[in-house]
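User: For a benchmark we're assembling, each entry needs the component sequences followed by a predicted structure for the full assembly. Here are entry 17's components. Please fill in the structure.
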Amino acid sequence: MRINTLFYCLGQGIRNIFKNKWFTLASIATISACLFLFGLFYSILQNFQYMVKTAQEGVSVTVFFDEDISEARVEEIGEMLKRRVEVRDIQYVSADETWENFKEEYFGDTDYAEGFTENPLADCAHYDIYMNDVSMQSTLVTYLEALDGVSRVNRSAVTAQMLSGVNSIIGYVSIAIIVILFAVSIFLISNTVTIGISVRKEEIQIMKYIGATDFFVRAPFVIEGMIIGFIGSLLPLAAIYLLYNQAMLYVAERFPYLSQLMQFLDVNVIFQTLIPVCIGLGVGIGFLGSFTTVRKHLRV
Amino acid sequence: MRGTTKRRVGSTKDEYAIRLENVCKAYTVGIPALDDVSLHVKKGEFVFIVGDSGSGKSTLIKLLLRELVPTSGKIYVNGMDLVRMKRHNIPKFRRRLGVVFQDFRLLKDRNVYENVAFAQRIIQMPNREIRKNVPAILSVVGLAGKYKAKPKQLSGGEQQRVALARALINKPDLLLCDEPTGNLDPKNSWDIMNLLDKINSNGTTVLVVTHNREIVNAMQKRVITMKKGIVVSDEEEGEYIDED
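Assistant: Structure for entry 17:
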């Protein structure tokens, strides 16, 4: 293809955007609305997932040892645990540290603990095990209980199950919402493009009658669609960015206790993924919408 | 070929701009739009196709443009087999044709220059050539001074001249005109026909589908008459035959 043909198609694509103002506006509005909803749900779901993940990270399994266990065996168990895929981190807490933690938590600044001359928790040295995925807790516990030298395994089965369940629900809800949004987007966008292009059906026919190739006819429409998709993706991104920051500020000011309970993701973290995804979707929808709709009219 | 025919065809394939061999075209079950039509148009000829509505003229034009394929039979245009032609070769085939329609079919949002230049852009002609060729062809059709005008600013006759300029700019071997004077007054109709005659005298094969009895009878060209999908008459220097 000649370079001037390429520039011609590009020029025509840009020209069409201004020539068909109402079609352009309707298409941008449709894509923007769909991507805005998508971005909004994405941000909310990401935050939910982040909160659940944060909660999951705090859920631990505690392993206590037999009284006569050697230090070497404790270390050996530690090494074995580090190699497990479900284990994110382990922390060894000695009997003395356990007693100190206990005193700090239950006695505070009082002198009640002074009555104890020896460590009453002498047999409570343990590993706190933090997991990558709490849904694998029962597998790990079964493994731990079978280990030689392990006397008891403490776990929070209810919390683990609940978090794991919430995580699954968020996953399913995300998929369902995204699928519905896409179905609605494609329906709305293909309708808008169909209306826009049917007006220009005659133009396409004339081009075909005088020997234009499918590429030559289609290229300006596709370029137009991609530019509209690109603009249509920038608007909701800007709107979500402003809205998200405002919402964070509002929550922090009005509901400070909520901010302490829940940790929200930084807007930049969300936008690291949302920007390329939204632009890709906008441009992709513009490309596919114009490509497939023009195709219907090319058989002349 | 059915009906009265005074022409004899027996030359080599290369002599012909158009060859139809036993062509049938049926849209649905019932009366076919074209029924076993065979006709041959030599290169450089000027031919009128006449007939009333429903005679099959429009179907013939669509077949010659490769917009339709026949139900049976063979069609060759400019030596190309239209029945076997692959879809991706249709644009190349059409670039060797010039087409003029009754309703002009100009790109309404583009000016005269751009409408004519468009035919050159699709064959990827360099811009410097387009800048040279478009004014030249507009002079031929008498519109050199109106290159900036949009179609709606032109009269019907002027719009048809633009369409003609667009059809001619790539120097086609064959010019197909579907009712080119259908929307024009007598003066403009004659202007267009005189232009077509001039183009034909320069060697381009011209096929004109028309209802215009006065022009057909006055121009004394070959006339093919169609009725209900068959060729009923094919005469040199023929006349418009009434259906009755």
